[in-house]
Write a structure and sequence with these properties.
It contains 15 helices and two strands. The protein is mostly helical and 304 residues long. The protein has one domain (9-297). A hairpin with a 5-residue loop joins strand 1 and strand 2.
Length: 304
């Protein structure tokens, strides 16, 4: 069994501080994942999701991949671009999205349910018309199903390709584990297996359309100060890794087919970074705190 990775003290302190800052978006209350003691999360600690979501590299890659797919749907694209701060404050938007993902997987069930209820209340006011004239609403079950599916696909596929291959059974478990959260959000028809995702993707692909907004989003993700300036080239590589996860049929629609391949050295670099992050124990992070809440050692998820 491989032990968790602990960096030399100065580097470990920097990593802990950076992770803590990223999960504390401005004007958002701090969330203590160690409380209430003993209360389970929406998914159990032995879930595949607990291992997937602990990896910050896979989450960044998967999150960007998910948004690419979201923005391919005209009504979702209009809602995201007109009612969020992606263009004006992308880092805060990423922080809030990342924190929400952590809460749905690791926080105590009661806290996750309160957060999701608040999101649903805010979504009830998000309405408008897409560029094709169709009306949209953020609480439309069909659109919620697509958004939930793209998130599950992005996070799971990033882990599968760049961290550790998941078996077919593990992939199906990860899809099924997202069902309780999806239903709380109102996505009652979100896919609960890899085969169901393939069917949904096939049904949705004819409805997806190209837009310069997709390319604008990718450029924002490349230049947003998510990582420190010296590591910005690495951020560019991670965005390219996210693009590589776009299903070929969607990539053709969006005009991204020439951007899909990563050269073998680039893929190797992403895998090396992602696999290292998979063992890096951050004691102040939600995964370690959640383990402590349910009575497990802080490094339980980081052993392999």
């Amino acid at each position: 069994m491989m032990a968790a990775l602990i960096l030399p003290a100065p580097l470990q302190r920097r990593a802990e501080a950076a992770a803590g800052r990223f999960l504390r978006p401005s004007n958002a209350p701090a969330i203590d994942f160690t409380e209430p003691k003993g209360e389970p999360a929406l998914v159990p600690a032995e879930a595949v999701s607990w291992r997937v979501f602990k990896n910050p590299v896979a989450l960044f890659i998967g999150g960007v991949a998910a948004v690419i797919l979201e923005l391919a749907e005209p009504r979702v694209r209009a809602g995201v671009w007109e009612h969020t701060s992606f263009r004006t404050d992308p880092v805060t938007r990423l922080q809030r999205t990342g924190l929400a993902a952590m809460v749905t997987v690791y926080a105590a069930r009661s806290r996750a349910e309160r957060m999701i209820a608040g999101v649903n209340r805010r979504h009830s006011a998000v309405t408008g018309r897409a560029e094709d004239g169709r009306a949209y609403a953020a609480n439309d079950p069909e659109l919620l199903d697509w958004v939930q599916a793209t998130a599950s696909y992005g996070f799971g596929e990033a882990y599968h390709r760049f961290v550790r291959p998941l078996s077919p059974a593990e992939r199906d478990r990860a899809w099924a584990e997202a069902t309780p959260t999806a239903r709380l959000y109102g996505a009652t028809g979100a896919p609960a297996s890899h085969a169901a995702w393939q069917a949904q993707l096939q049904a949705m692909t004819p409805r997806l359309t190209p837009s310069p907004i997709v390319l604008e989003f990718l450029e924002i993700m490349r230049r947003a100060p998510v990582l420190p300036a010296p590591a910005r080239p690495l951020q560019h590589l991670l965005v390219r890794a996210a693009v590589s996860l776009t299903p070929p049929e969607v990539a053709r629609t969006l005009g991204l087919e020439d951007r899909l391949p990563l050269a073998p050295p680039e893929r190797g670099a992403v895998r090396l970074l992602a696999q290292g992050a998979d063992r890096l124990l951050l004691r102040n992070g939600p995964p370690a705190q959640a383990c402590a809440r349910v009575g497990l050692p802080a490094d339980w998820l980081y052993r392999s």
